[in-house]
Amino acid sequence: MTDAKTPKPRALREDLAPLLAFALVRLVLHLLLNTRYGFHRDELQVLDDARHLDWGYVPYPPLTPFLGWIELQLFGTSLTGFRVFSALAQCAAMVLAGLIARELGGRRFAQLVAALATACMPFSLIMSGMLMYSSLDLLWWVAVAYFTLRLINSGNLRWWLALGLAFGLGLMTRYTIAICAAGLFLGVIATPMRRQLLTPWPWLGAALAVLMFLPNLIWQVQHDFIYLDFVNHIHARDVRWHRTDGFWIEQLYANTGPLLLPLWLGGFAFLAFARSMRPYRVLAWLYMIALALFALSRGRGYYVAPAYPMLLAAGAVALQEWLARLRATPARVVRAATCVALALAGATSIALGVPVGPVNSLPWRIARKVHDTFAEQIGWQEFAQRVAEVYRGLPEDERSRTAILANNYGEAGALDLYGPALGLPRVISRTNTYWYRGYGDPPPSVIIEVGNDAEGESQSAAKCTSFGEFRNSLGVDNEESAWHYEIFVCRDIPSQWPRIWGAKPRFG
Question: What three-state secondary structure class fits 387?
């Protein structure tokens, strides 16, 4: 069944062409620039998990490592290759934002504004340069908004199956998609869409999502729902470090950038109050409920970022309707001002979120004042080389009995990545999913320990010698170089490895 509002297929092809063209330009930009710096600390964890495929991991569901495994098969450890899916996900979200505007009645101008505004989101640009669950998570939220509009406009209840697919992929990517599902469900109840709950289709969509999620759910059951321990630990840390304090103010500048604030605020008001938007009010409910749930749970500000593309799209349609009521000259001025604002937003976000300049260049220094994403990509190969120097300095009879104990997942991932070429021994770690891989049989009698400081090492029962702190040659302050971590060689380790290893992973 098609509604009178639904454009003809040829019109869809015509509207898709410019959206795809802009997305292609963006994809090429990321493919060219994603070679800078190095793997991010979080990517190194994903990369290592990609070599140990399973139905679950301590910090996240299995889809992101699985995509990492595909990229490893296709591209090896190429930086650009490892980030292809992230860049594609953000480009797809950009196209879907344009199509959301189309479903809301937006013509070519509104569709392009929606797509370009989404592309200008700092969060989206940063996520295009790292293989992280957050990169894919944004795409599933945008897909949910688009499928919901297709459901409304077409009247075809089979779109509930598409929604189930999006939620299933979302649950296998990041568990916070459940917040989106709660927002949509309560939004459906609050609008005339609730009548659809009397049909089997919403429940079939929900069953599809649960079926897709079932393997990971079984994994969690088998591992005593270890993710709940992990997220409780991480949340307590974020609260303790005041990372959640700026939740509300971050909605005004962090997720979309301040220049796009009028667009998404206008889009939200348009969805919530405009009479012409009454059939689509479910999206306003989705945003409000998700925002409230993240705020009540004291989440971080960027958790809401995936909800903003649909508001930007609605804002673009509201702008289109306003322009239609203006005289020709003022309308041209507003269009020009919109283009200038998008250009400035894009330039600002690129400077902050895309690795356009070398380390310590002006773009680097600007970005460094706002976030540490690029800093955490520096020095990993040097770090592995420094550990290799310490290892080669050990007496030859000790090397066969030596393992490297990494106290965080970045170190473990980097040493697993670069260590084999340097002749390093096996890497063990008690952090996150590495803990399940154990300490080996027989256990090591000599340890090269990294990611600890002198105070922490003083509590060790083993006899440990420091080989100094590691500093990268570029002088970039990051967790490895600024937290006074030293490299230790530990001998005379007590023969109590099960007790040393502990009953649960350490979380980070």
Answer: helix
The residue assigned the tokens 């040097």 is 382
Tokens of 216: 């990971």
How many angstroms separate the CA atoms of 506 and 31, rounded?
Answer: 35
Q: List the structure tokens of 444.
A: 């090591």
327 Ramachandran zone, left/alpha/beta (phi>0; psi -120 to 50): beta
Say if residues 21 and 13 touch (Cβ distance below 8 Å).
no
Angstrom distance (rounded) from CA 365 to CA 352: 9
DSSP 401-431: TEEEEESSHHHHHHHHHHHHHHT---EEE-B
* Interacting residues of 140 by C-beta distance below 8 A, sequence separation 6+: 166, 167, 169, 170, 173, 177, 180, 306
How does pLDDT run across 86-131, given as a tens digit for each residue?
A: 999 999 999 999 999 999 999 999 999 999 999 999 999 999 999 9
pLDDT digit string, tens, across residues 299-358? 999 999 999 999 999 999 999 999 999 998 999 999 999 999 999 999 999 999 999 889
d(CA 222, CA 436): 13
Q: What is the 3-state secondary structure (H, E, C) of 13-79?
A: HHHHHHHHHHHHHHHHHHHHHCCCCCCCHHHHHHHHHHCCCCCCCCCCCCHHHHHHHHHHHHHCCCH
Asked whether 378 and 359 are in contact (CB, 8 A), the reply is yes
Please name the residues in contact with 262: beta carbons below 8 A apart, sequence gap of 6 or more: 315
Q: Give CA separation, 203 vs 57, 170, 190, 221, in Å.
A: 28, 17, 18, 24
Q: How far apart are CA 269 and CA 287, in angstroms?
A: 11
Q: What is the pTM of this model?
A: 0.95
**Terminal Cα-to-Cα distance of the chain (whole angstroms):** 50
Of 440, 389, 434, the closest CA to residue 413 belongs to 434
The encoded tokens of residue 176 equal 């916070």
Question: CA–CA separation, 259 vs 120, rounded Å?
Answer: 10
Domain layout of the chain by residue ranges? 9-368, 378-501
Asked if 312 and 142 touch (Cβ cutoff 8 Å), the reply is no
Q: Using alpha carbons only, how large is the chain's radius of gyration in Å?
A: 25
pLDDT at 1 over 90: no
The residue with tokens 């479903």 is: 103
Distance CA(115)–CA(508), nearest Å, equals: 35
The two structure tokens encoding residue 63: 């889809």
In the DSSP assignment, the letter for residue 472 is -
Residue 184 to residue 202: CA distance in whole angstroms: 11
